[in-house]
Amino acid sequence: MVSSSLAVLHALDKANTRWYHITSIVIAGMGFFTDAYDLFCITPVTKLLGRLYYFDPSSATPAKLPVAVNNFVIGVALIGTLAGQLFFGLLGDKFGRKRVYGITLILMVICAICSGLSFGSTAKSVMTTLCFFRFWLGFGIGGDYPLSATIMSEYANKKTRGAFIAAVFAMQGVGIIFAGLVSMILSALFLSYSNAPAYHDNPVLSTQPEADFLWRIILMLGALPALLTYYWRMKMPETGRLGQFRANNDYKLFSSEFNRRHGKHLIGTMSTWFLLDIAFYSQNLAQKDIFQNTHLISKPANVNAIQEMFQISKAMFVVALFGTFPGYWFTVFLIEKIGRFYIQLIGFFMMSVFMLIIGIKYTDLSDPAKHQTGLFALLYGLTFFFANFGPNSTTFVLPAELFPTRVRSTCHAMSAAAGKAGALVAAFGVQSYTLSQNSHKIKHAMIFLAFVNILGFCCTFMVTETKGRSLEEISGEDEGMHQDEMEMSEAQTEGRSVVI
């Protein structure tokens, strides 16, 4: 006799797309909107922090954050994200996805507000409290990765599962756009109602006192989408698959049986995400320096603090709107046609090509006399497009599909944490190397990143295509099910609607 659990799972895979699928995408996706806003709004904020808290009246150049401080302000949230991914990923398998899902949003709301309230009378005290709260902000952000991916994969039917998971992740692109847009709008408003103080002969080197409110408001606004989503996230039920297959496989994580079945896949998802994030975060974190060399923004010595922030935010918004954002949604619409495997291969390869061209031709591309600014911006935008119509999306999707239910959240968390380890390499390694804006260093960094992408291309062959197959078929959890049982199950569930 066919078990009721088999009938339920078969019904989940055959279910038509319904309203609860759409609402689940929005609810889970708003977490990623918040994640991206909080992580990427720091790019323009760091410039302002340098001008505000490290101002030197005797200097002839605008102040900026010391290299170590800049790296830590950016990197501490990534460290928190890595820790949060592992912590909440384990809890998601141990206690259930829903029980810990709301905690991540609470952390994000509290820490986004507290980041903006960072207190102290000296630069050291303000930076210390800011970094403290951004660590815990990252901790909450990290929990959203495995939980959102796992919940969406277990809710979805097998025909649209990849598109649904990718759509959740695509909200990251919207968050990046809003990080630039909000910073740009607020900077413009502050420019309209403020004047540079007279404590320096050169107004360009002065920083408007109102600017101290500007960066705080930008950071605190990150709490709003998470706060608005909390109620609906708490109303989401536990996934049907967790109840049916939680105790299905008796082999443990890292056991010889797990390694035989899934070890290569885990190495593949971890290595590709690690390599991807070295390139992806290097692009994002260093973009304020790239923008200057593509002449999308003025040199710091030619603008005051808020003007510089406005220009960086505007450039970030334009690149995100025309390069980053479309790539995410190309993946959503094509992932079930092309497949995860080939999209990832195409993305890694094209990123490598464009980064190699930028690296080799960097001197000419960044030379205003050569009039190649438009080509530089196009090549730079295309690297973002193929990152997102490529491995930045698929590395999120594949770990949510390849592993058994009882360890799915943990394996996704390990893969995502490997990615954040790559992001830390970008923040403390690649960005530090290019922070001086030396053309030769940026050139060498781009060539290095092209090589990193080729490694990601090669490591992709350790994963397998998951398109069109049920989660149980992919992970091997349907072993022992005979064809006649499957046919009986289909007959049993025909016409039945499954509430999850």
Automatic annotation (TrEMBL):
**Which CDD domains does this UniProt record tie to the protein?**
MFS_PhT
The record's listing under PANTHER family reads: SOLUTE CARRIER FAMILY 22 MEMBER (PTHR24064)
Parts of the chain that traverse the membrane: 20-45, 65-88, 100-119, 125-143, 164-193, 213-232, 315-335, 341-362, 374-393, 413-433, 445-463
Domain of life of the organism in this record? Eukaryota
- Positions with biased composition (Polar residues): 490-500
Q: What is the lineage of its organism?
A: Eukaryota, Viridiplantae, Streptophyta, Embryophyta, Tracheophyta
* GO molecular-function term, one example from the UniProt record: symporter activity
Protein family membership: Belongs to the major facilitator superfamily. Phosphate:H(+) symporter (TC 2.A.1.9) family.
Please provide the Gene Ontology terms (biological process) for this protein: phosphate ion transport
Annotated Major facilitator superfamily (MFS) profile domain ranges read: 24-468
Any one GO CC term of this protein is:
membrane
- Chief localization class? membrane
What InterPro entries does the entry give?
MFS_dom, MFS_sugar_transport-like, MFS_trans_sf
- Protein localization: Membrane
Question: Which species does the entry assign this protein to?
Answer: Eucalyptus grandis (Flooded gum)
Membrane topology classification: Multi-pass membrane protein
Q: Does the keyword Methyltransferase apply?
A: no
Q: What is this protein called?
A: Major facilitator superfamily (MFS) profile domain-containing protein
Which keywords does this Swiss-Prot/TrEMBL entry list? Answer: Membrane, Phosphate transport, Symport, Transmembrane, Transmembrane helix, Transport
Report residue spans for region: Disordered: 476-500
* Pfam name, any one: Sugar_tr
